[in-house]
Amino acid sequence: MTIGAVLAALQQDFPDVTISKIRFLEAEGLVTPSRTGSGYRTYSSADVDRLRYILTAQRDHFWPLKVIASALDAMDRGLTPEHHESGMPRPSVPAPPEDPDVPTADEVTRAGTLRLTRAELAASAGLDPDTVDALETYGLLHADATGHFGDAALTVAHSAAQLAAYGLEPRHLRPFRTAADREIGLVQQVVTPHRTASGKGSKAGAAKDLTGDVLRLCIALHTALVRDGLQHG
């Protein structure tokens, strides 16, 4: 939109606004329209919404430019508008988004019913016997007392097979086992006192629920740290 079109759109609600006013707000750094190759200003719908926010804050709530600039900066940094008691949206820190890839507490602790032989596991993931042996050697696969492998082992095997395409061998995956063991150890430190207490009281089964909750939070933390590392590494 040209500045003239913006003015026409705004004057329906703000009849006193002028082109000079819009340019003044630009000079103050509150709105930053794009420029054409010829130097003409062009405004997006987001710029118009931003101007509406500024003009409303000034007209209805008498906010000084410094306060408006602070609010706009907060929204530019991802804070979300929240209606203040005065009726004017003020930025607030949003709740962290739910990660759909983080399992629920029940999913973390749910025991699977799958029981695969070594040959079935290898065939499903497309792994040769030597690779399965290596995954066991490095602690990534564990057979149960009957020599069978469960749901988690199937996921491990398939993940290892897919990572092999990127040159990652079982020995390279050992740090994941180490990290998982450390997380499990930490969770057990938290859960054990509650399990003992629940065994003495009437809260039977509370320890299992707590284990799932703590594990879910650990997985969410791990995922967030990986994302943060990728963004700032």
Descriptive report:
- Strand 3 and strand 4 (89-92) form a beta hairpin.
- The protein is 59% helix and 5% strand.
- The chain has two domains: 3-92, Multidrug-efflux Transporter Regulator, Chain: A, Domain 2; 105-232.
- The protein is mainly alpha-helical and 233 residues long.
- It has a two-stranded antiparallel ribbon.
- Helix 9 packs antiparallel against helix 10.
- 13% of the residues are buried.
- The model has no long low-confidence stretch (mean pLDDT 88).
- The protein contains ten helices and four strands; from the N terminus they run ααββααββαααααα.
- Oligomer description: single chain
| Portion in helices | 55-70%
Kindly estimate the percentage of residues that lie in beta strands according to DSSP.
5-15%
Low-confidence stretches: none
Shape annotation: elongated
Notable traits:
233 residues, mainly alpha, two-stranded antiparallel ribbon, Multidrug-efflux Transporter Regulator, Chain: A, Domain 2, 10 helices
Map the helices and strands.
Layout: H1 3-11, H2 19-27, E1 34-35, E2 41-42, H3 45-61, H4 65-76, E3 80-83, E4 89-92, H5 105-109, H6 118-125, H7 129-137, H8 151-164, H9 174-200, H10 206-232
Antiparallel strand pairs: 1-2, 3-4
Helix pairs in contact: 6-8, 9-10
